[in-house]
Design brief:
Elements (H helix, E strand, L loop, with lengths): L2 H20 L14 H19 L13 H7 L1 H20 L1 H16 L4 H22 L13
Length: 152
C-alpha cells in the first residue's frame, strides 16, 4: 500500500472519529450558534479528502523503489514535529490561556516546522494569534480558555 493510500486511510479514520464526536455537540440557533457545525464540517472535509486519496490512481514510479528504514523515519519527521507541538499546545492551553498559547504555538510551528525567519514567524504568530483571539473571543463571544489572564 502506497503512502497516498495510507494518508487517505488516516484522514478517513480521523474524519470518522470527528464525525462521531461532533454529532454529539449542540448546534445552537442562527442567532447563537453552538459548537457543533464547525467540527462537523471539518470532519466531513477530512472524510472526503481521505476518500479522494484512497481512490486516486497511483502515479508513475511512485512506490516502486524500496526505501531504507532511515528514509522512512526521515519522512515522518515533519508530521511528528507537528504532532508534538500540537500536543504541547493542548497541554498548556488551559494553564496559559488562548491569548498566550495560540501565538506561542504558531510561532514554534512557523519557526521550527515551516522554517520561517525569526522576525517573520514572530510577526505572523502575533498577528494571527491575537487576531483569532479577538475574532473568536470578542466578536463571536466564544468562551476561550483565559489562563492567568482573566482580566481580558
Amino acid at each position: 500500500m502506497g503512502r497516498q493510500r495510507v494518508a487517505g486511510f488516516i484522514f478517513l479514520s480521523i474524519g470518522i472519529l470527528g464525525l462521531a464526536d461532533s454529532i454529539q455537540l449542540p448546534w445552537g440557533t442562527w442567532e447563537e450558534p453552538g459548537p457543533g457545525p464547525f467540527p462537523l464540517a471539518v470532519s466531513i472535509l477530512l472524510c472526503l479528502a481521505g476518500i479522494v486519496k484512497i481512490l486516486q490512481k497511483k502515479r508513475r514510479g511512485e512506490g516502486e523503489e524500496k526505501k531504507s528504514w532511515r528514509e522512512i523515519a526521515h519522512s515522518f519527521r515533519t508530521p511528528l514535529k507537528i504532532l508534538s507541538i500540537t500536543l504541547c499546545f493542548i497541554l498548556v492551553l488551559e494553564r496559559l490561556g488562548y491569548l498566550l498559547a495560540a501565538p506561542l504555538f504558531l510561532f514554534v510551528l512557523l519557526l521550527w516546522v515551516s522554517r520561517y525567519r525569526l522576525r517573520t514567524a514572530l510577526v505572523l504568530a502575533a498577528f494571527i494569534g491575537v487576531g483569532s483571539w479577538y475574532f473568536f473571543g470578542k466578536i463571536l463571544a466564544v468562551q476561550l480558555p483565559q489562563g492567568f489572564l482573566r482580566f481580558l
